[in-house]
Each structure stands twice: as structure tokens, then as C-alpha cells.
Amino acid sequence: MRASQTKAGPAVKPLIVARAVAAVISVIMVVHVATVALWRDSDPFLVPDTIVAVLLAVCCLLPNAVAPTVMLFSFGWTAGVLTVSVFTYVVRGEFAWPNFGIVVASLAMAVLLHRHGRRGAEA
Q1: Which of 3, 9, 53, 84 is least surrounded, with the fewest CB atoms within 10 Å of its CB?
Q2: In terms of DSSP H, where are the helices of 7-123?
């Protein structure tokens, strides 16, 4: 075993990265919901944004055995919700760069977790 590997193997690093990204996005979404979404008269994204925040926060706390599967779902959900959000801006002639950044980060983490899962299945 190489010095850079732990007993858990190379699988630990992708999970650490994914947990960190999930935590950052969760905090961003909590701040957004608390400061913007709750105060709008009717925000169609209030419930989906809240679900994103909760799912990603929970992912950070799950054990390594189940975290990748739940994180893959959560990052997919996040990418879907925020893609719809980006396109609600696009149809109004605007572009939501912060939302787009979260979509890209979520998709990158989904790919990372998928590749990590395939590598574990082949071993």
C-alpha cells in the first residue's frame, strides 16, 4: 500500500472533495433561502431549493458506505433544480452565473462520484 493511501484506499479522497463541495453548496442554498426565497410573495423554487440544502447537508454527515449513492442523487437533484433556475433567467434575457456555477460543480461531483463508484466495482 502506498503512503498516500489509507486502509480505506483511494476512495476516501473523492468523498472528501464531494463532501466539501456539498457543504459549500448547502451553505449557499441556506443563505439564499433565508435571505431571498422566504421573503418573495411566491417563489416556485422555495421548496426545491430547501430540499437541495437539506440533501447536501445530510450527505456531509453520512457514513462512507452509503454517502456516494446519496451524494450522486443529491448532486443530480441540485443540477436539475438549478438548471431550471438558470433557464428561467435565460428566457427573461438574463443569465444567472452563480446558479450556473453550482450546476457545473454539481455535475462535476456527480461525474467524480460515478467514476469513483465504477473504480470500486472493478476492484
Answers
A1: 3
A2: 12-35, 46-61, 67-90, 97-122
